[in-house]
Amino acid sequence: MEALEQKILSEGQVLPGNILKVGSFLNQQIDTPFMLELGKEIANRFKADGVTKILTIEASGIALSFAAAVYMGVPIVFAKKSESANVSGRVLTAPIHSYTHGNDYTAVLPADYLSANDRILLVDDFLATGEALNGLFALAKAAGAEVVGCAIAIEKGFQNGGDDLRKKGVRVESLAIIESMGSDSLTFRR
Amino acid sequence: MEALEQKILSEGQVLPGNILKVGSFLNQQIDTPFMLELGKEIANRFKADGVTKILTIEASGIALSFAAAVYMGVPIVFAKKSESANVSGRVLTAPIHSYTHGNDYTAVLPADYLSANDRILLVDDFLATGEALNGLFALAKAAGAEVVGCAIAIEKGFQNGGDDLRKKGVRVESLAIIESMGSDSLTFRR
Description:
Chain A has 5 helices and 11 strands; from the N terminus they run H-E-E-E-H-E-H-E-E-E-E-H-E-H-E-E. Chain A is of the alpha/beta class. Chain A has an 8-stranded mixed sheet, sandwiched between helices. Chain A has a two-stranded antiparallel ribbon with strand order 1-2.
């Protein structure tokens, strides 16, 4: 998506450790009209797939999910990140390793919020090694729901999480895929 | 707001410890069209106030903030909850005590995301003792920004955080105010 690539080039910052900082428009600060454009694009790409619910993980996946849901007319649910699975009520859990933060956590979701009848779209702002998405897949599977695909704002193509999923037959739609990234250069996959 | 009161009565659950669980539509699962209605109502109440930015705190304030921002056409920024203020770059921080979880944390926001020219609307899903809002006030003040008011989905009137702010002259608009709450009864302030 050309507009997202341009925004990354004009406002993104590459930090040491392969970190791309886009907090000024996509994460901690959210450019609302721009985020709605990303949501509209996601809705358009999955309009024929009968999605019944969007599943994401707190916190930075929530705004993009909501933006997509505005155009899809479906509810969103987000998994919480918990140090333990110590939550009341019947819950679904999945262990996730965070590459960025170098720790492990448990993704937790009340079992009531997904059902075997759901057709789930997984949404997240970033896709790198795919650990978070794999955790969301596990939650959907635990509920017996079908995952119709994944919608991502920015995929770091060089970290292979997206391609690993595609090789398994998963539909992964990333609005921008970064092929390579350095302190003074950034190229996109076309 | 009548529609929110009805939704609380039909889908909310009162749990021990004065906890009102509305995760099925307002928090962990989000009823997107309904959330947009709440956002539209907030935008309407603050349409004359020249709001330039919405400030909230992760994670459950993000969706409501985004819904309001859709109708106000402004960016949102959210403070992150950190055990420490150990974040790179120049940041604004404020200590917050969580009544619900019984712990203390630090609200952290990159200093670049608020300026002295901003007219800030604080948004959150819940207002009880007001600890989170007071932390957001402190962040706005640290940036020299003006807070034009607070917009809340559900205020627990009996926990006094909202009235304490109103006594100080702060404009607090809550879409539903719970006057009293028990396992088999729930009354709203009218």
